[in-house]
Specification:
Length: 218
């Protein structure tokens, strides 16, 4: 298997390292993460995107339906409802449901902000009342969090938490990933939100549980 680092691949393609890292994280490039670095498999074919991403309204409806909200279709046209239902019906049979969801929602799903925090403060950060767990930090996922905190936080609370825990924004090897929401997140995060976050995760462990959670939701 021929591999390049993200920097080598970026130089060869004439694009930014950040763009390569984002493509690797989303699954658009075949890659694996080793010691905090992306290694791009240059011998594997690049997968194609599964059509257009969902509109913001359809993406919210899909998330709402996966979360068990009976009013998920409110505000949708008949055509939009039919399309969301058809997508939902196709998910349980997909071999890579995380990939399908990531493609559908790539235009609307904002990535988390990466931070470094002192290892001794990780538990306190995870228990802070302003954070709501998602990803591997959510107990519904059932996998070890491996020394990382993944959570949602309200934008209004972010600065205070950054200051109190001396959070440092980083691109490489973060041990805290915070999704910044305009409003204070529900506790726990809705199941659809958890599924979306896992689908967009860089980790194979997180992606591997998406299918089980989808079947639970449907």
């Amino acid at each position: 298997m021929a591999e390049m680092t993200a920097a080598e691949y970026a130089a060869a393609q004439g694009i930014s390292v950040r763009r390569v890292q984002a493509a690797a994280a989303s699954g658009a490039l075949p890659a694996r993460r080793l010691a905090g670095r992306w290694l791009i498999d240059v011998g594997a074919p690049r997968r194609r995107r599964a059509g257009r991403p969902l509109s913001a309204r359809s993406s919210r409806a899909l998330c709402s339906r996966l979360s068990g909200n009976p009013d998920w279709a409110d505000g949708l046209s008949n055509t939009e409802r039919a399309r969301v239902r058809a997508r939902l019906d196709s998910l349980p049979e997909s071999r890579v449901p995380w990939q399908v969801i990531a493609d559908w929602t790539r235009a609307e799903h904002a990535p988390p902000v990466g931070y470094r925090v002192a290892d001794g403060d990780l538990d306190d950060l995870a228990q802070d009342h302003r954070l709501v767990a998602t990803g591997v930090s959510d107990p519904r996922v059932g996998v070890s969090d491996a020394g990382i905190v993944v959570a949602h936080i309200a934008r209004a609370d972010l600065r205070a938490v950054e200051q109190e825990f001396l959070l440092v924004r980083v691109r490489d090897r973060p041990n805290a990933l915070l999704y910044v929401d305009d409003e204070r997140p529900n506790r726990p995060v809705p199941l659809g939100t958890l599924i979306f976050d896992l689908a967009h995760s860089a980790g194979p462990r997180e992606r591997s549980v998406v299918g089980d959670l989808v079947r639970t939701a449907l």
